[in-house]
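Researcher: Following up on the earlier apo prediction. This time include the ligand. It's zinc ion, with the SMILES given after the sequence.
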Amino acid sequence: MTARLVLALGLLICCGAEPRQDGLAALIAELPDPGYPVELVRVRGMADWADSIWDDERETFVVRVRAGIPHEFAVDSLVHEWGHLLVWDACQESPHDDLWAVAYGRCYRKVIEE
Ligand SMILES: [Zn+2]
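Model: Understood. Below is the ligand-bound prediction.
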């Protein structure tokens, strides 16, 4: 059973002036299951390209990607954040350690064509 959830509302937020989906939702289907639902949202005006948070009340990961960035950057950001989701508990103290790097690599290989 997959534990993924991509809310349509999040994708609508991302579209804004660009009335199309950006393909990130399709990429998610290729990524390893992090074990909990994931909500993908586009956020205007974020300082970073992306981040991830854990919504304890809904037991859901929320990946936030800055709206308006080029598709390639959004893909890279999503893959980076998905690596965090896969090792969430183990890497809270050092979020970009070797364990995360391996998880990131697993995600990268799923979505980047050789
Ligand atoms: Zn990171």
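Model: The chain is about 40% helix and 15% strand.
Researcher: Noted. I'll compare it with the apo version next.
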